Amino acid sequence: MSASTAPVETAARQHWMAVLARADSAQLDTRWQALNLQPEYQFIRQPEIGLTMLRGRVGGSGSPFNMGEMTLTRCALRLTCGTLGVAYIAGRNKQHALTAALVDALLQDGSYHDRLQSELIEPLAAIYKKNCAARDAKTRATQVQFFTMVRGED
Amino acid sequence: MYVAVKGGERAIDNAHALLAERRRGNRDVAELTVEQIRNQLPLAVDRVMTEGSVYDPELAALALKQASGDAVEAIFLLRAYRTTLPRFGYSEPLNTETMQIERRISGTFKDLPGGQTLGATYDYTHRLLDFALLAEGETPPSLETDSAPLEPCPRVLELLNSEGLIEQSPKNDERPRDITREPVDYPAERAVRLQNLVRGDEGFLLSLSYASMRGYGDSHPFAGEIRSGQVTVELVPEELGFPVVIGEIVLTECEMVNQFHGSKTEPPQFTRGYGVSFGYNERKAMTVALMERALRADELGEAVNFPTQDQEFVLSHTDCVSANGFVSHLKLPHYVDFQSELEMIRRLRREAGKQENNAPASAVEEKTV
After folding, report:
1. Read out DSSP for B36-59?
2. What's the CA gap between A111 and A115, in Å, rounded?
3. Does the distance separating the beta carbons of B116 and A53 come in below 8 Å?
4. Residues B278-290: pLDDT tens digits?
5. For residue B193, what are the contacts with CB-CB under 8 A and spacing of at least 6?
6. Which of B5, B77, B96, B300 makes an SS bond possible with B63, Cβ 3.0 to 4.6 Å?
7. Are B46 and A15 in contact, with CB atoms under 8 Å apart?
């Protein structure tokens, strides 16, 4: 939405936060464990489950209205170097939110950025893309190819 | 008037234990898991999420398990649970135009940019019981795929917009009133009506839509577009100040096209009714769209002749938790109320009997009013 207008740094952060939020909790955990990083941190906000009210638009594009709520889990923490990591993740998985907040903080740190980007964010983004493409391929096969039957002489 | 009645504790404890036993059923049959309900009864899950007004498939599946499959009880459980959670603000308005389409059809145009895509639908099935599902073991269907990219699917009703034949959805970014926080005043604004309808009872809204289409209302529209798919949710965390993606949800959206004969200020044109539901609940999205339009009668200067067009009648009776609560309250002890009515009937009959012997019948009627 505003990703295109935001400064590059914010856009990059928005991208990895989206990848982390969309990742399957178990896959994120496995890949995070495999990195074997144990950064020290302090909680600013312990992983906490809550609700957000989803807003839609009347007619899909008109004025906003409140559609109903969804569950989400948030977490905020600070690395000992002072970098802030934040995560807001759909659903109720506290470990997912904690890992995502840690990764968000470490990605802002030059010494971890490239490794996390190539070993965590890029593979998870590829999985998400692959899942979307697989879903699209099944959907596409149900697309109607209309043809018109000509009836009568004229 | 209710009276505190003691002495039921043991009976209640045992009744709950009996309920748990009945819910479990025959112990020779494997127990149903929440994950199975979530995966294999997804439309039941979608209904509970939509009317429970909380998008969380796992919680909705748990509620269904706990409620022995009773949708209204499960919705009540989910609504009760939501009151225990803090609210972390509001999402950014969802952009459903960029939805990852899993189904998209139109009853108004055959050829559309992006095409018509059936997706997983019960339409065109023969409604014959499939005894293969009763047999053990499963044969996965052979699934065709088509890896050509899906074309973008712009909103169908925008095709009418280019000729100016359909009303514009008014757009302002004022904060919409939230009926979970503020009571509804009548007449209610469109955002409030829509929030109420989306969480309203599917059966009630389906029947009202049916009535309004049959003539108790003036609503026999076209299904301009129905679409289902994955929609990205973004919100602006207070720590960050810019929007971030928190995940994806499945939504079904419906836009109905109605005739409008014009008014003093508006030329004849098409009008819209909009509906949406969580998950793949197409019936619900359609009924919301039908009722959303029916309740615009007032705003469009149409005569309000039927209950289906009456905001207060419709909106104050959509909620299945409220409706179920009020009907269920009749099960509470009304011993004192009933005793007093019983006493009154006996007295009236005694008095009527007395006067029948020494007065004309009209005097008896006056006494009993």
Report:
1. HHHHH-HHHHHHHHHHHTEE-HHH
2. 8
3. no
4. 999 999 999 999 9
5. B292, B295, B311, B315
6. B77
7. no
Contacts of A140 in chain B (CB under 8 A): 117, 145-148, 150
Amino acid identity, residue B177? R
Amino acid at B247: G
The two three-digit tokens of residue B331, written as one number: 């099960």
CA–chain centroid gap for B274, Å, is 14
Contacts A108 to B, Cβ<8 Å? none
For A69-123, the DSSP string reads EEEEEEEEEEETT--EEEEEEESS-HHHHHHHHHHHHHHTSHHHHHHHIIIIIHH
pLDDT digits (tens, 9 = 90+) for A37-65: 999 999 999 999 999 999 999 998 899 99
Match 């096209």 to its residue by tokens.
Answer: B257
For residue B87, give the 3-state DSSP assignment. Answer: strand
Tokens 């907040």 correspond to: A101
What are the start-end ranges of the H helices in B255-302? 282-294
- Give me the interface pTM, i.e. the ipTM: 0.92
Q: How far B168 CA sits from the closest chain A CA (Å)? A: 8
- For residue A44, the chain B residues in CB contact (below 8 A) are 239
Please tell me the distance in Å from A133's CA to the nearest CA on chain B.
8
The answer to whether A72 and A88 are in contact (CB under 8 A) is yes
Nearest to A143 by CA among B253, B148, B140: B148
In B, which residues are within 8 Å of A21 by CB distance? 244-247
Q: How many CB atoms lie within 10 A of CB A87?
A: 28
Distances in whole angstroms, Cα of residue B86 to Cα of each of A71, A73, B82: 10, 11, 8
Query: Which residues are CB-neighbours of A110 under 8 A, at least 6 positions away?
Result: none
Distance CA B275, CA B265 (A): 26
Of A71, A135, A138, the CB nearest to B59: A71
Over 50: is that where the pLDDT of B171 sits?
yes
Cβ atoms of A17 and A120 within 8 Å: the answer is no
Torsion angle of alpha carbons B13, B14, B17, B21, nearest 10°? -160
